[in-house]
Specification:
alpha/beta, 34% helix, globular, HAD-SF_hydro_IIB, magnesium ion binding, phosphatase activity, HAD-like_sf, hydrolase
Length: 290
């Protein structure tokens, strides 16, 4: 639903999707949005980047903001404490099951890699040929920065025996993506979502950003009614739906907007900053410098 609310709320934690939400289309954190987030932190509101990206792929301009203590990575597979680099909550795919899933993915014409131990791991056959899988030029530097190139993903997983946080897929052809989605979504122990128009993301079936947000709230003794969440994509649905105040972006998926309590303007119009200013009782002087 889309309610025109203008009342201030008691918000103590804000979960923020990044791509399509907090960041502009060209992946920037605007100065004003950063100032709003800093004002939240100065007033004791936890600001929580919540992304499908692996931890190492989260922009430093967000994690380096003084007062940001935690991040949700890999669609909720890990909640990482930044000061220690340790996960305070995890919900991954067992490494043995991940090997079986890799074999399933070979039937599709797709790029795939795995997020584990806070990093992305990508075979050279994919890493060296991103164009062949429809990965847009402006995304390619970010994809490469957040992955380590390896020769054999299966061998790496067998050696490290680490739970896989997320399996990411990119497709050149939409028909192939839809076929993969139809088949994979019916596998009971998997959650299949997307954050881009040409990708699919595979997590453990109980894993989502909403689950991670709820569990961090329990750790911090913050009830869901005092949690705000902002998102735009299919992988933000549970977080936006389950938070005490769910905010969808105007550029978001219809399903997310329907689940939200409020629809703000687009990410390129600083919709996150506007929603926070609307609902959180911030001292505006801290934002304007007055």
């Amino acid at each position: 639903m889309n309610e025109s609310k203008n009342q201030k709320r008691k918000i103590r934690l804000i979960g923020l999707d990044l791509d399509g939400t907090t960041l502009t289309t060209d992946k920037r954190l605007t100065p004003h949005t950063k100032e709003v987030l800093e004002a939240c932190l100065k007033q004791g509101i936890e600001v929580l980047p919540a992304t499908g990206r692996v931890w190492s792929g989260i922009p430093k301009e967000l994690t380096d903001i003084e007062g940001v203590h935690y991040v949700i990575s890999s669609n909720g597979a890990a909640v990482v404490e930044l000061a220690t680099g340790k996960a305070v909550y995890t919900n991954g795919i067992a490494w043995e099951r991940a090997l079986e899933i890799f074999d399933l993915l070979e039937k599709y014409d797709t790029f795939y890699d795995a997020y584990a131990l806070g990093n992305g791991w990508c075979e050279g056959r994919f890493y060296d040929d991103l164009d062949a899988f429809g990965i847009e030029k402006f995304l390619q530097p970010m994809v490469k920065r957040s992955r380590t190139r390896i020769d054999d993903l299966r061998a790496w997983v067998r050696e490290h025996k680490a739970p896989v946080e997320k399996i990411n897929m990119f497709f050149l052809e939409e028909e192939n993506r839809q076929r993969a989605f139809r088949e994979l979504k019916d596998i009971p122990d998997l959650a299949v979502t997307c954050s881009l128009t040409n990708n699919l993301e595979i997590n453990h079936y109980t894993c989502n950003k909403g689950d991670a947000l709820l569990n961090l709230g329990k750790i911090l003794h913050i009830p869901m009614e005092q949690i705000m969440a902002c998102g735009d994509g299919n992988n933000d649905l549970e977080m936006v739906r389950d938070a005490g105040l769910g905010v969808a972006m105007e550029n978001g998926e219809d399903s997310v907007k329907e689940a939200a309590d409020y629809v703000t303007v687009t990410n390129d119009e600083e919709g996150v900053a506007k929603a926070i200013e609307l609902f959180c009782d911030l001292e505006m002087g801290e934002i304007s410098g007055e």
